[in-house]
Structure formats: structure tokens, C-alpha cells
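Quick one, C-alpha cells below:
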């Protein structure tokens, strides 16, 4: 969902250097938007013993004052004996009548915003039937669920229903248990306006000064993703050739006239992103119809099925909302506690665009920024524990950033092949496709492709809170490198984070990357290495969510200072094992000082200093190193 502030990662912003701030502002904006909506989450209409198999929404919104008039035609299948059906609808809207089997029937519309319809007969199980609900009124315009705003190109009416806003503008069943199998939306507006919505525009019928846009969608859709926007749009299309089908997909763009030039320069990025997601995740889920963008005035974006609503066409916003077509639209979280299945995946998919399509430094910068933000507080779970308030539900640091980094870290733990194969299998699983999913569904697929039991990982990183901090103490004796590792946790909900640690051992002439398994809070790792180590780098490629410190343990009888390599041709490395360096000097065989340096502030033990010796002629020299209490001389050979 995202649209509101979730516009989140979707929202996208503008330059590479601004990518992280853009993503963050989108998410926070979306969160604020959600918070503006009603703050309750009861599944008010999920237990009536019916399954909605078709809905036709026929509306005529007033483009001057937002007054809404129309009806909804529902076809349903009974799943139990029933004599009533409930729908969610705000009391701000007046129900004129309910028609069932060509007759008006009784209904009540209470202050809890429940429309209770009495069928006057008991329907048996597995019966298909239909009814129509006629209503009108001005929806509550204080939220973004249904809004009217003014742009430089005139009025716009747009909807944005996630999580609990659909019943602000139409009688619906606002739950995470029953998707509408098939949908038609017909919107009548003055001929100056165009309407964007879900699915395919089948036709436009003209009636004097008005015309009706008839949209048709033939994929299952959850209530909060049903949407329309009406404005004086300019409409154009981009086209993406999908490798999975070898067919071209139309990407429609409904943009404000004053934004057309900017939009035309940015929406083509959707093609490359679409092709990347098609290769990583599988075919675009609604490829028999279309994908599209409709510009609206709320900050951020919203992943309405087949037609994302966008405040602008920032790269990150495009990527985030497009990813939702797989994560959130095709597979929809079956409870708001598992909202991360929508948002974390869309956020990480946005990041993946930088991994595959952008320079590595931009990718690494985004990862560093995400890690910094997540590690700024010691608590917070990816799973939403409070779904009654939209603020915690759409918390950017946890639901978006931490969730994305937990997926990224899992990718490191099980490897690219197992990770992306698991994602594709999850998305194409026929038991899940176009339905509702839970965290265990995803976990099961990752376990199948990785061959690992991931229960602890999901408990520690999704359900529980916090992150680990590592203290590493290392030393090298000959070819033996020993690393002591101690883990502490930022939050008491986790006893041990058992994710392998990537450590880069940097030598004077070569490096090697090792992987330290973590099975207890205190462990030791030993490796035989045929070259000298000068330093350790923790998680050099930013895979982990963790803090760390690294200390060098001085072995017994180790010299206060060691120099490497010796002989040396270019850079000489001075390792200060137990020596605080204030100045050094190189003296040639005649006693002449040829190179020297004095530090304004002493270099403390544990550091490594580098001397460029390329300006020195070949020969034998004396390296004199001084602290405030000691002088050490080393012979060095330049060749």
C-alpha cells in the first residue's frame, strides 16, 4: 500500500546522491498519510459466509464539490448457510436502496459504519447470487481515502484506500480474507476529464457533455487496491519487452499537462526496471492487461493494482510501486501484522535496482544509509505488533528499512541462487498466487531452496527486536590467524543471532574473505594463512545488520613495531603493536636523512602507518622510529 506516505520507497526522489533521502521521505510521507486515516482494523465483514466473485462499481463523481453518486453490483458465492450480508460503508454516505432478486430489501446502516443487508431468505451453501447497493453523498474529505484537490491543470479526484479507507467511498468488504475475483469500474465525468483505474480501458461512451470510462480487471484484487483518479490528464505509453514471455507490455501514463515534459523524461525508466523484475521475480503478474501510472497530488505513491498512483516519477518511487505488483498485489499479506511481506519486499526490490542497474558505489551507499538508520535505535520488530494505529504499522525504520535489510542479510546467509529461486517459487506457488500469504509461506520456500531451517532466523529478525553487536579480537602468529568473537544483543528478546560473519583479512600483498559461523555468544575462529595480515574489515560489502568493534591482540614476545614488506619496492607498512609513534626518519648508508615525518598528534598502538618508498634509490637504509619514551631502529632494503 503505500501510497500515502508509503509513497515510501516508492516515492522516489531525484538524484543518486539523494536516493536515500528520497526513499526515506517517501516512506515517512506515506506513513503520515496512513495515520490520517481511521485507526481501527477489525475485520468487520469477513465472517458472513460469502465470497465476492464479481463487483461492478458505477459512479458519477462531481468534479466541483466531490459529491459521489452511484451503485455497486455484487455477485457472490455462499460458503455457508446465510440470510444476511454485511458491508463496510461510512455513515457519511446515504444508502438509497438495496436490490436483491429485482426487489428492494431491508437493511440497516449503523454508527459503526456497517451496512447490514437482510436477504429475506436463507441461501444454501455454494449458491451464486447477486445484489445492488445504490448510495450517494459527500465522502469524508479529511482523509486521503477519497479526496478532491486543485492542480495547475484543474481539479483532481483520487482515491487511496490502504489500509482501512475503501469504505470511506464505496460499500465494500474491507478485509484481508476475500479478494474480488473480477472487477468492472465505470466512472462518468465531464468530457474535459479522463479517468485512470484498474485493469484495461475497454471503451469510452459519450453522452452529451459527459463521457463514461469503462475499466475492466480480470484478476483477483483485494479491496484496498481498487482505485480511480479523474483529472485533465495527458495520456501516453511506454512499452517493455518481457523476456519471460517475449511479449510487449504497455505501460500507460496519466500525467498532469504541466508535468508532461518531466514525466516523459522519467517514465521510460519503468521499462528497464520492469525487465529486471521480470527476470528476477517472474512474469509481471497482470501481463494480460497492462501496467500504468496515474499522477495525483498526495506525496508519495500507492501500488493500486495495474495502475500505481504517483506524486511524481522519481526513479525510486517508480521502482517501489512497481515491485508491489508482485509483493502486495499478486501476493497480499493475510494480516496487517505481516505488512512487511508487502513493504519490505518492495523496499528491497527498489534497492536491488541499484545492485543490478546502477554503479556499485551508489548501491553500497544506500546499504550503508539503511544500516545506519536501522541501527540508530536498539529496538523495533519487522512484524507489526500494533495494527490498531497506522503510525506503528507503517513505521519506516522497521517495516521498510529493517525488513529490507533482513531480506538482504538472508540473501547473504543462503546465497543468491537459493534466495532468488525461493522468491520466484514463492510468487508462482499455485496455492498462494493471487491470494493472501503469511510469513510462514515465505519461510517455507526459502527453506526448500536453501536446505536450512530458518525458524530461528525469522523469529530473531522478523518477530523479535534489535540487532547484534560484535567485538572481534584478532592476532597472527606465523601462519596462524586467530579471531575471538563476542556477541551482545541490543534487545533482550533475542538470545543469539546466528548469522555468519563476512570478514575481510587484508594483507600487505593480498586479501582474503572468510566466513565465520556464529553458534554461541562467544566463539573462536582460526585459519592458517600463508601471508601477513595488517587489518580486518568487518562486513566489507554491507550484508549484515550489526554493529562491531575490532581490536588487535598483541601476541606474547611480539615486537613493539613490525615492518612489512622488507625488502620493499613501493609502500612500507609500519604496524604499531605496542608503540605510540611521534616521528620517523629514514637514513641512508652515509648517515644522511633522506625522508622523515613528525606527527602533530601521536599515532597510537594498534594502527598501521604507510611510507611511500618509491622516491628512494635501491639500497640498505635505517628506519628510526620514536615515541616520547623510546627509539627503535629497523634495517630496511629498497629494491
Amino acid at each position: 500500500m503505500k501510497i500515502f506516505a508509503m509513497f515510501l520507497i516508492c516515492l522516489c526522489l531525484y538524484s543518486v546522491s539523494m536516493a536515500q533521502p528520497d526513499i526515506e521521505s517517501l516512506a515517512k510521507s506515506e506513513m503520515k498519510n496512513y495515520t490520517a486515516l481511521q485507526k481501527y482494523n477489525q475485520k468487520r465483514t469477513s465472517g458472513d459466509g460469502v465470497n465476492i466473485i464479481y463487483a461492478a462499481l458505477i459512479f458519477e463523481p462531481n468534479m466541483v464539490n466531490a459529491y459521489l453518486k452511484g451503485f455497486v453490483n455484487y455477485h457472490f458465492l455462499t460458503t455457508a448457510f446465510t440470510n444476511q450480508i454485511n458491508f463496510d460503508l461510512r455513515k457519511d454516505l446515504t444508502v438509497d436502496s438495496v436490490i436483491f432478486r429485482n426487489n428492494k430489501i431491508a437493511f440497516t446502516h449503523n454508527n459503526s459504519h456497517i451496512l447490514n443487508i437482510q436477504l429475506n431468505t436463507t441461501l444454501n451453501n455454494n449458491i451464486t447470487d447477486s445484489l445492488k447497493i445504490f448510495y450517494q453523498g459527500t465522502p469524508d474529505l479529511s482523509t486521503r481515502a477519497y479526496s478532491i484537490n486543485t492542480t495547475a491543470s484543474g481539479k483532481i479526484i483520487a482515491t487511496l484506500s490502504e489500509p482501512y479507507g475503501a469504505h470511506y467511498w464505496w460499500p465494500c468488504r474491507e478485509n484481508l480474507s476475500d479478494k474480488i475475483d473480477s472487477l468492472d469500474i465505470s466512472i462518468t465525468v465531464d468530457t474535459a476529464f479522463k479517468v485512470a483505474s484498474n485493469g484495461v480501458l475497454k471503451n469510452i461512451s459519450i453522452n452529451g457533455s459527459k463521457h463514461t470510462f469503462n475499466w475492466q480487471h480480470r484478476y483477483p484484487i483485494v479491496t484496498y487496491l481498487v482505485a480511480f483518479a479523474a483529472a485533465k490528464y495527458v495520456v501516453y505509453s511506454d512499452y517493455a519487452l518481457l523476456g519471460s514471455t517475449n511479449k510487449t507490455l504497455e505501460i500507460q501514463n496519466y500525467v498532469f499537462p504541466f508535468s508532461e515534459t518531466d514525466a516523459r523524461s522519467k517514465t521510460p525508466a519503468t521499462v528497464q526496471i520492469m525487465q529486471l523484475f521480470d527476470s528476477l521475480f517472474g512474469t509481471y503478474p497482470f501481463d494480460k492487461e497492462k501496467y500504468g501510472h496515474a499522477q495525483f497530488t498526495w506525496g508519495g505513491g500507492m501500488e493500486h493494482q495495474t495502475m500505481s498512483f504517483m506524486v511524481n516519477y522519481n526513479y525510486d518511487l517508480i521502482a517501489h510501486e512497481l515491485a508491489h505488483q508482485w509483493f502486495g498485489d499478486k501476493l497480499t499479506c493475510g494480516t496487517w501484522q505481516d505488512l512487511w511481506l508487502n513493504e519490505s519486499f518492495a523496499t528491497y526490490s527498489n534497492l536491488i535496482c541499484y545492485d543490478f542497474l546502477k554503479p556499485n558505489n551508489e548501491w553500497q551507499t544506500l546499504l550503508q544509509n539503511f544500516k545506519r538508520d536501522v541501527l540508530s535505535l536498539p529496538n523495533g520488530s519487522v512484524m507489526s505488533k500494533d495494527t490498531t494505529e497506522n503510525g506503528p504499522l507503517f513505521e519506516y525504520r522497521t517495516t521498510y528499512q529493517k525488513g529490507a535489510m533482513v531480506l538482504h542479510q538472508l540473501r547473504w546467509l543462503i546465497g543468491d541462487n537459493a534466495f532468488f529461486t525461493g522468491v520466484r517459487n514463492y510468487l508462482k506457488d499455485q496455492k498462494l498466487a493471487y491470494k493472501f500469504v503469511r510469513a510462514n509461506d515465505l519461510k517455507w520456500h526459502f527453506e526448500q531452496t536453501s536446505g536450512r531451517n530458518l525458524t530461528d532466523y525469522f523469529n530473531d529478525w522478523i518477530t523479535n527486536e534489535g540487532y547484534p553487536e560484535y567485538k572481534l579480537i584478532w592476532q597472527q602468529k606465523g601462519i596462524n590467524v586467530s579471531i575471538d568473537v563476542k556477541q551482545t544483543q541490543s534487545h533482550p528478546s533475542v538470545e543469539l543471532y546466528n548469522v555468519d560473519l563476512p570478514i575481510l583479512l587484508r594483507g600487505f600483498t593480498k586479501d582474503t574473505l572468510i566466513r565465520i559461523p556464529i553458534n554461541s555468544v562467544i566463539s573462536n575462529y582460526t585459519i592458517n594463512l600463508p601471508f601477513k595480515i595488517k587489518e580486518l574489515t568487518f562486513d566489507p560489502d554491507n550484508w549484515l545488520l550489526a554493529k562491531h568493534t575490532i581490536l588487535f591482540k598483541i601476541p606474547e614476545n611480539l615486537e613493539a613495531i613490525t615492518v612489512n614488506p622488507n625488502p620493499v619496492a613501493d609502500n612500507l607498512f609500519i604496524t604499531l603493536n605496542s608503540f605510540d609513534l611521534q616521528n620517523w626518519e629514514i637514513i641512508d648508508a652515509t648517515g644522511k636523512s633522506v625522508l622523515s615525518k613528525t606527527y602533530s598528534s601521536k599515532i597510537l598502538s594498534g594502527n598501521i602507518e604507510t611510507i611511500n618508498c618509491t622516491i628512494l634509490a635501491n639500497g640498505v637504509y635505517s628506519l628510526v622510529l620514536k615515541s616520547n619514551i623510546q627509539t627503535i631502529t629497523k634495517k630496511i632494503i629498497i629494491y
